[in-house]
Amino acid sequence: MLTMKHRLLYLFIIVLHTGIAHGQVTYFADLLGKGFKQATIVQPSDYEGSVTCTIVRKTTPEKSSKAVLYIHGFNDYFFQEEMAERYLKEGFNFYAVDLRKCGRSWLSHQKFNNVRDLAEYYADIDTALAVIKGEGNEKVLLSGHSLGGLVASLYASDRVGKEKFDAVLLNSPMFTLNIKSGLKKSALPLLIKRAEKHPESNFDLGINPLYGESLHVTAHGEWSYSLGLKPFIAPPVNLGWLRAVHNAQERVAQGIQINKPVLVLHAARSIDEKKWSDIFFTGDAILNVDEVALRAQNIVGQYSIQAVQGGMHDLVLSKQPVRDEVYSTIFNWAKRTVK
Fold first, then answer.
1. Closest Cα to residue 163, out of 303, 258, 302?
2. Which runs of consecutive H residues, i.e. helices, occur in the chain?
3. What span, in angstroms and rounded, lies between the C-alpha atoms of 148 and 52?
4. I want to staple 68 with a disulfide (CB 3.0 to 4.6 A). Which of 18, 141, 174, 197 is the partner?
């Protein structure tokens, strides 16, 4: 028999999810200001305890029935105001989701970015899409960058026949880990095996901090964002995270079906510099772009893959002429696919 406490908790969950299903969430001013609003959504607890995700929204001046949902990458959160404004100018209501344990959604008892299966993020995306639909948006573009691109790809594949989106945009999707081939063949299988019993063991991905320095205004870049939420040196991940990402990438390698139009964009070349130089402004310092392009061909469905000359890892943070080209490509494609 349910106790009164459990009855109240059960009622709260029903009311919470009914509200979300109809887009009834409460927004507050976001840390970005400038008309951006955010809503914190309480999700069911997991192996670390309480869980939330955060929806960030800015709507078009004139009423629109189409929207974009942006999913950030690893060691990341939504801060790209210029990107949002570009979508608004094109008539898209803009939404972003800070996934659980990332950015605005991180809670003090959690390890940053901690995940054991990328499907854990599906609840956050389901929630955001329910809100978007509930707020009157009939057409939706699902967009993901880097790890968010990998998540969006698998989500789109696992929601075939139940899509609440109309097209998928992938900005430098993390279809492979940029690990030396020798390590991939020797060390990686051992780490993945160890992760089965010891998912909480730490692992340093060794991401080049110079990439962050190429972006941030206090170093060599032009963008202002929180170094607390997106530090130059990414905190170590757990082996559970490594296994989750590896398993997801293997699924892509084996082929995934997506029944909506897909646009895959990536930089034209990778760079692997150990010291700072302006070359960081001209390529992808995180992923092997050749492997990304190769694995993107394993998508079963209507897809287009395009390399961006001079593009950085996050293509919309590239130098001005390059990102102008990126936006032109995105919106020309979107006009055909998100009508």
1. 258
2. 4-21, 81-89, 122-134, 147-158, 181-197, 209-215, 239-254, 289-296, 320-337
3. 17
4. 141
Cβ neighbours around 42 below 10 Å, total = 13
What is the per-residue pLDDT across 44-89, written as a single tens digit (0 to 9) for each?
999 999 999 999 999 999 999 999 999 999 999 999 999 999 999 9
pLDDT of residue 3: 40
**pLDDT tens for each residue of 91-143:** 999 999 999 999 999 999 999 999 999 999 999 999 999 999 999 999 999 99
The per-residue pLDDT for 184 is: 61
pLDDT surpassing 80 at residue 229? yes
Closest CA to 312 of 168, 208, 206, 215: 215
The domain locations on the chain are 26-337
89 vs 330: CA distance, rounded Å? 13
The single-letter code of the amino acid at 63 is K
| Amino acid letter, residue 270 | S
Q: Rounded CA gap, 148 and 121, in Å?
A: 10
Measured CA to CA, the distance from residue 155 to residue 314 in angstroms comes to 21
Q: How many Å is the maximal CA-CA distance in the chain?
A: 67
Question: How far is residue 57's CA from residue 64's CA, in Å, rounded to a whole number?
Answer: 14
